[in-house]
Design goal:
Layout (H helix, E strand, L loop, with lengths): L3 E4 L7 H16 L5 E4 L4 H6 L23 H13 L4 E8 L3 E3 L2 E4 L4 H10 L3 E4 L7 H6 L5 E8 L4 H20 L9 E9 L5 E5 L6 E2 L4 E5 L2 E4 L4 E7 L2 E3 L7 E6 L2
Parallel strand pairs: 1-2, 1-3, 3-7, 5-6, 6-8
Antiparallel strand pairs: 4-13, 5-7, 8-15, 9-11, 9-14, 10-13, 11-12, 13-15
């Protein structure tokens, strides 16, 4: 079996991913599967404070990998986790959307690398989305070392247990299949070549007219912001959506829309 590292809690506010990682960890340890390590609270102080950044230095941990062993608290954590990750054959990093938003389960990775696409097929969630990522993200830095790596996004705002349970089921099935060299079923994965977060430049109260999982046409209304219509810039699939609440453009988006591979 390939050695697999499962992480969660890089962003401390994403409690849903921490909870399912704890459950996956318990399942793995109860079966003594030594080839799999699960770290539910990578950014422990941030998890304890339920905030995105580490409270000691205010840094976003998922922007500073591979870290610095002589740096700040976050840089030290990044260094330690990255050195560990280099010893594994594949990486799954669990995330959720944040406060007042949620998403369907999807795998986010660099699909231009065949080994990442193969990992998507093995995990078998319905949606896989291409990204070149942002430098300093754990899954991007390990993928650049030719370690199959991805983020899985699902749910958000400490809610949407069904989406999180689906992720747990797929990750556990993947671990079982890898351990016993079996394939329980062949999944039909939909691949998306591009996604965009829609960020209107003015603040106000956002009211969604669509929801994650909906297909939309170019120019279609997806919601209103301060009474003004918000349209999607291209035809695609809504991955995630902000719920009805106040919107601040410097901190969030109102939707994430993906375009399917041709």
């Amino acid at each position: 079996m390939k050695k697999t590292l499962v992480t969660a809690g890089i962003h401390g506010a994403e409690i849903g991913s921490v909870l399912i990682a704890r459950e996956i960890k318990g399942w793995v340890e109860s079966r003594d599967i030594k080839e799999v390590e699960v770290i539910p609270e990578v950014n422990l102080e941030a998890v304890e404070n339920k905030q995105r950044e580490n409270p000691e230095d205010g840094k976003d941990l998922n922007r500073i990998f591979p870290g610095d062993k002589k740096g700040t608290k976050s840089e030290l954590i990044a260094h330690r986790i990255f050195q560990k990750a280099k010893d594994y054959d594949q990486l799954i990093d669990l995330h959720t959307y944040g406060k007042n938003s949620w998403c369907v389960p999807y795998m986010l990775t660099d699909l231009n690398k065949d080994y990442n696409r193969e990992l998507c097929e093995k995990i078998g969630l319905e949606n896989a989305v291409q990204t070149g990522g942002t430098g300093g993200q754990l899954f991007i830095e390990t993928s650049n070392l030719e370690i199959p790596s991805m983020i899985i996004e699902a749910g958000g705002a400490e809610r949407y247990r069904d989406e999180l349970e689906m992720v747990k089921k797929h990750v556990l099935s993947f671990i079982f299949d890898e351990k016993f060299e079996e394939r329980q079923n062949e999944a039909a994965v939909s691949y998306y070549e591009y996604y965009e977060r829609i960020r209107p430049d003015h603040k106000g109260y956002f009211e969604p007219k669509k929801e994650p999982g909906d297909h939309v046409e170019e120019g279609e209304e997806i919601g209103t912001l301060a009474g003004e219509v918000v349209n999607t810039p291209f035809s695609g699939f809504i991955l995630g959506m902000k719920m009805a609440s106040e919107y601040k453009p410097e901190k969030e988006s109102v939707a994430a829309v993906a375009r399917k591979e041709k």
